[in-house]
Amino acid sequence: MSVFVVDRHHQPLMPCSEKRARLLLARKRAVVHRHVPFVIRLTDRKREQSEVQPVALKLDPGSKTSGMALVRVEQRGEGEVHHALHLAHLSHRGEQVHQALLQRRGYRRRRRTVNLRYRAARFANRRRKAGWLPPSLRSRIGNVLTWATRLQSWAPLTRIEVERVKFDMHLMQHPEVSGIAYQRGELVGWEIRAYLLEKFVRRCVYCGKQNVPFEIDHVRPRSRGGSHRVSNLVLSCHACNQAKGDLTAAEFGHAEVQKQARVPLKDAAAVNATRFALVEALRALGLPVGTWSGGRTRWNRDRFGVEKEHCLDALCVGDVVGITRGRSQMLLIQAQGRGSYQRTNVDGSGFPVGYFTRAKRMRGFATGDLVRAEVPQLPKPLKTEGTHVGRVAVRASGSFRVGKCDGINAKYCVVLQRADGYAYGQAPCPKP
Ligand SMILES: [Zn+2]
Fold it and tell me: Are 413 and 372 in contact (CB under 8 A)?
């Protein structure tokens, strides 16, 4: 993983290797600007004195996880080769946001029926703005936007590439209507695969199996004059495809499949609603935004022999002739939220069982700060003795938990980095 570098005026420079960062720090030419992700600040250099190459941020937005890849762009012949500088895995908390709102709804409903201050039902007299998205989706968009903004301030970004749609309808030109065949051009084949996966919700149409390698099955087999037209194609597992042999779907005992295959996937745009909103939000950063299809990502992944991993998917987004990834680690970023306004702890039925403190900050620390605690050797040894680094959980008593070690006195702690709404980890990328 590369180290981000900024100049003395906090302007982004090209990221450098970890070894080079170590040397710069040892020679006192740089200071630590931020711990995770690691950013150093050169004390003797301005942006004008440095070479900056084109750097692109590539995104693969997902509902649970989004992949991010920061790449150096090199022109080679007709196309571009992308060299990975930084790979990251961004885990969203959309599901938690959803649960929190369900819980709030429950509390409000109770207050309407229970013998308390009356709370009028108000859900029916609210108007939603055009382009409204539920908070759980907005949180996902917000996370990606936050990270795009942060990366823009640590690296000399020149453009953003996003996987916007799962399949490119334009490239396929209404497959069911125009009778396009899946063997016309290699890329079109991949778009149609992506289309079929969506249309048949990633299930074998015959046995309903999920999470198996799928094959494209011809409802009316090739051997009996069936075409490669998309309306003749369904998704099937290997076993069913074999068992079906040269029967039609109806003869195989699945007349409903024959019918379903002929109905086109309605409203392909709705499938991609959040992704469109994300692209609109990213445009506000003032960088050119390129948009691509998931079919193309899968095609690239197959061509370059890349494993299935969110950040590697991000690396495969777009029009590239090659990618390099080096010995890559990926940064795991987990959205944490910023705590709760609610200061009353309640049990499962909504009755108060305790109260949180009003203050979120205790002796200068807030839960989520990255902290180093150095507990010294004392005449009467403490069981927390030693050095601990990690996220801190604060208590009013001043006895904190740092990482996994509990019961550390606040006076031994030093803040390394303030809580920024995310928790961090690292993992090795799958090897090629
Ligand atoms: Zn099957």
Answer: yes
Q: Which helix (H) or strand (E) holds 74?
A: strand 65-76
Q: In angstroms, what is the span from residue 297 Cα to ligand 1's centroid?
A: 26
CA 309 / ligand 1 centre spacing (Å): 25
Q: Which of 268, 303, 328 is the last residue of a domain?
A: 268
Q: What is the pLDDT of residues 88-137, one digit of tens each?
A: 999 999 889 999 999 888 888 887 788 877 777 777 778 888 888 889 88
Helix/strand number for the chain, H first, E second: 12, 23
Is it the case that residue 263 has pLDDT exceeding 80?
no
- What range does the domain containing 389 cover? 358-422
Cβ 166 vs Cβ 294: under 8 Å: yes
Last residue in a domain, options 268, 286, 311: 268
Domain count, the chain: 3
- Contact call for residues 59 and 66 (beta carbons, < 8 A): yes
* Domain assignment present for 328: no
Instruction: Report the mean per-residue pLDDT for the chain.
Output: 88
Output the CA 215–ligand 1 centroid distance in Å: 10
